[in-house]
Amino acid sequence: PYLQSQLESIETQSVNNVHIYISDDGSSDETCAIARSFIDCSHFEGTLLKGPKRGFVENFMHMVNNEEICAKYYAFSDQDDVWKSDKLERAINWLSEIPEDVPALYCSRTTLTDAEGKIIGASPNYKRPPAFANSILQNIASGNTMVFNHKARELLALAYGAPMVAHDWSLYQIVSGCGGKVFFDTIPTVFYRQHHNNVIGNSMGLGKRIQNFLQAHSGRAAIWNNMNFEVLGRVSRHLTPESAATLHDFESIRNSSLSMRLKLMKSSGIYHQQAIGYFTTLTYVLLNKI
Length: 290
What we know:
Layout: H1 3-11, E1 19-24, H2 31-41, E2 45-50, H3 56-64, E3 73-75, E4 82-83, H4 87-95, E5 104-113, E6 119-122, H5 132-135, E7 147-149, H6 150-158, H7 167-177, E8 181-193, H8 206-234, H9 241-252, H10 258-268, H11 275-286
Parallel strand pairs: 1-2, 5-8
Antiparallel strand pairs: 3-7, 4-8, 5-6, 5-7
C-alpha cells in the first residue's frame, strides 16, 4: 500500500541520473503490477527482479552481489518510506569529495511518521562520531538513509553468503572497520513510516527497549555477535590494524574472567551512542552474555 508513494519520492529527487532496481521477494498482492507500471511510465530506467525469498537481508544482498548492477553510487530503499527530495543530492555532495578507492558511506537521521504519513517524531541525533568501535555495539546507519560508493559495495559483496543480522549494520561495520569514511547527517532525509507491518521499525520506545534488553540477555546478543564476527571474517584482510585490535579484544571478552572481561571492554574502545546502551553492554560483559 505504500510502494507508490516511495517510488514517486525517488522520481522527484533533485538528482536525475538514477536506475531503480526493484527486487520483489515473493509478493502475492499488487506489488509487481505497481512496480511494472512505474517502470513503464517513469523517466528513470528501471528493472524488476525476482528475490531469493529468504527474507529482507538476502533480498538486498542478492542485489549487492549482482554484477549486472553497477554504478558509481548506490542507495538502499525500503518500500514503505518516502525520501525527501534532496536526499540523493545531499549524499552525493559528500560522497563526491571522497576518493573512489576509499569506501564511503552516507547516512542520516529520519523523520518518523505514522502509517498515514503524519509526522510523529524523529530518530536520535547522535553526538559521538561514527566509528568501528561504535559499530560493534549498534547500528546508527539506518539502511533506508544509506548512500554509498562502489568501493563500499565491493567490500560488502565479499560477505555475501554469510549470515547477517541486517545488511545495513554489516555495511556500517565493514566501511568503518576497513578504513572507510562514514558521515552521519543530522538533517533527516527520509520520512520513516511506522506501521504494524514494519520488519524493524523505530526501537526507541520504552516498551521496545525493555523487550530488546530481555531478548538480548536470553542469548540474542551472543547470536548476533556470532553473525557479525563471521561477516567481519570475510573482510578480515581489509580491516585496519586498529579495527582488528578492537575486534580481537571484543571477541576475547567471551569466557574470560570477570576482571579480564572488564579490562578487555576498556581496551577495545567500544562505545554506544546512548548511556543506556553502554549500561546494557556492561551487563552483557558482567554476565558473560557477549
